[in-house]
Write a structure and sequence with these properties.
2 helices; alpha/beta; two-stranded antiparallel ribbon
Length: 138
């Protein structure tokens, strides 16, 4: 394990929480209040955890367990986008590209109406070469 933390609160999907606004004849996507509120909470929570001294730039597996308030169907890949952006913004990850985040093994979505949250665990991948044709070992 390289890094581990828990972010309380209902995880919010970035993709579904954007709206299009028009200004000076151009259209822009902006985040909704719900996403901005979740983002601020995630940033605040990450400041309380012991983060790596420099952003992780080597290959890792990002395992995230999402504990949702409802049983509504949700696309797990959409859940990754927001938290990965926050991990980059807060200097935990150098980048969220496939060069650094090589997989999401062990990630799951659970139901917990009393305590919605996400548990993040980052594991170093020892023998991974970007764009290789052989499987990695953790």
């Amino acid at each position: 394990k390289v890094f581990e933390c828990v972010i309380p609160g209902q995880p919010v999907v970035k993709k579904n929480n954007q709206k299009v606004v028009f200004k000076h004849g151009r259209s822009f996507k902006i985040d909704t209040v719900a996403y901005r509120t979740w983002h601020a909470l995630a940033v605040k929570e990450l400041t309380l955890w012991s983060r790596p001294s420099t952003p992780i730039s080597y290959p890792v597996i990002l395992q995230i367990e999402f504990f949702m308030r409802s049983r509504r169907r949700i696309d797990i890949s959409n859940l990754y986008e927001g938290i990965q952006d926050v991990l980059v913004e807060m200097g935990v990850l150098m980048d969220d590209s496939c060069i650094v985040v090589v997989g999401h093994d062990g990630s799951r979505v659970y139901y917990d109406p009393e305590n919605p949250r996400m548990r993040i665990t980052i594991y170093e991948v020892k023998t991974w070469q970007p764009w290789s044709s052989t499987p990695a070992s953790v």
